[in-house]
Amino acid sequence: MSDKQISELLARNNKPLLSFEFFPPKDDAAMAALRQNGEALRATKPDFVTCTYGAGGTTRQRTMEVCQLLRDLGYAPVMPHLTCVGHSRNELEALAREWHQAGYLNIMALRGDPPRGFSQFRPSPDGFTHAAELVDLLKIQYPDLCCGVAGYPETHPEAVSPEADIRHLKTKLDAGASFVTTQLFFDNEFYYDYVRRCRKAGIEHPILPGLLPVLSLKQVQRMCSICKVVLPAELEKQLEAAGDDHAAAAQVGIRWAAGQIKDLLKKGVPGIHLYILNRAEAALSDELAQLFASR
Ligand SMILES: Cc1cc2nc3c(=O)[nH]c(=O)nc-3n(C[C@H](O)[C@H](O)[C@H](O)COP(=O)(O)OP(=O)(O)OC[C@H]3O[C@@H](n4cnc5c(N)ncnc54)[C@H](O)[C@@H]3O)c2cc1C
């Protein structure tokens, strides 16, 4: 069984795509929870789903396990992520071969973050320094592979300037990537401004906005600190007001995401990518389900 290329789905352009991002769980109990949530989320009929690639260790094997599980649940296309961290060129080639043979025709091609405790990315011996090199390898090895790449509306933390960051994004697309999925953001103005700057730089590819339905103040503060993105004061205030009431905080997150999605759909985005963190409640909420159905 081979997946359809996401580039083909985007080219149809008849409605904005909906996609969900999962991550490989650390243990069997979390894997069982993912299966349960994966089953429930089928009701929302996403156009594609993805699974991230861990920084190392057992979660890497689990990326393939999760992708297979998502396939077994009936999702298609299923897009594994792949990073350059800790891999030589030969290893990346071997992984691409394995996935391509298994019919995965979409890969999210990433550099990956520096390992914990290191501020700078160091390539493996005979490995890659930038995601563009991975896109290059994948597209030369398998021209029928559709590659997605990451974009940063608030600029990647290591970039020397916003302009340089967009230039590097263009290099990934010029190497053959088909679309961009953005880092999460909570203020749509960052996304609109980013798309404007990308278009000005000659980037015409679809740019899918990545959104996180927030669950708690602690979680969003952690995510914003890791991803170096702005937490709007109003969202922070509403989450503070929810206090220790988890349900109330999740409701704030759903309402905020719904407001973002409504506005993005009105402005004609090519899709909505949700960082669902293996949870189902936000995507299944009435607010978001209605918006998905109205696409
Ligand atoms: C949608 C999405 C999905 C993600 N999935 C994962 C995942 O599954 N696993 C994971 O570990 N991480 C994931 N990440 C995080 C990502 O790996 C990090 O943000 C990482 O720090 C950068 O990866 P990249 O692919 O954007 O790198 P690159 O595109 O290589 O960019 C990294 C930095 O280098 C700069 N740069 C690029 N090319 C050059 C050049 N030629 N010369 C000088 N500077 C250059 C860029 O401006 C940027 O600052 C994801 C991020 C996003 C937005």
Write up this protein.
The chain is of the alpha/beta class. The protein has one domain (6-293): TIM Barrel. It is built from twelve helices and eight strands. It has helices at residues 6-12, 28-41, 58-72, 89-101, 131-141, 162-174, 188-200, 217-227, 233-242, 246-266, 281-284, 286-293, and strands at residues 17-22, 48-51, 78-83, 106-110, 146-151, 179-184, 207-211, 271-275. It has an eight-stranded parallel β-barrel, surrounded by five helices. The longest helix is centred in the last third of the chain and has 21 residues, at 246-266. It is globular, with a radius of gyration of 18 Å. The relative contact order is 0.14. The mean pLDDT is 95. Flavin-adenine dinucleotide binds at residues 52-53, 55, 81, 83, 108, 110-113, 130-132, 150, 156, 158-159, 164-165, 168, 172, 181, 183, 210.
Q: If you average the pLDDT, what whole number results?
A: 95
The geometry reads as globular
| Separate helix tally | 12
Determine the strand fraction and express it as a percent band: 5-15%
Supply the number of structural domains.
1
Task: Sketch the major β-sheet.
Answer: 8 strands, parallel, barrel
Low confidence ranges = none
Order of helices and strands: HEHEHEHEHEHEHEHHHEHH
Percentage of helical residues? 40-55%
Question: What is the first-to-last residue Cα distance?
Answer: 28 Å
- Strands of the largest sheet, in order across it? 1-2-3-4-5-6-7-8
CATH C-level label: Alpha Beta
- Nearest-angstrom radius of gyration? 18 Å
Instruction: Please provide the count of β strands.
Output: 8
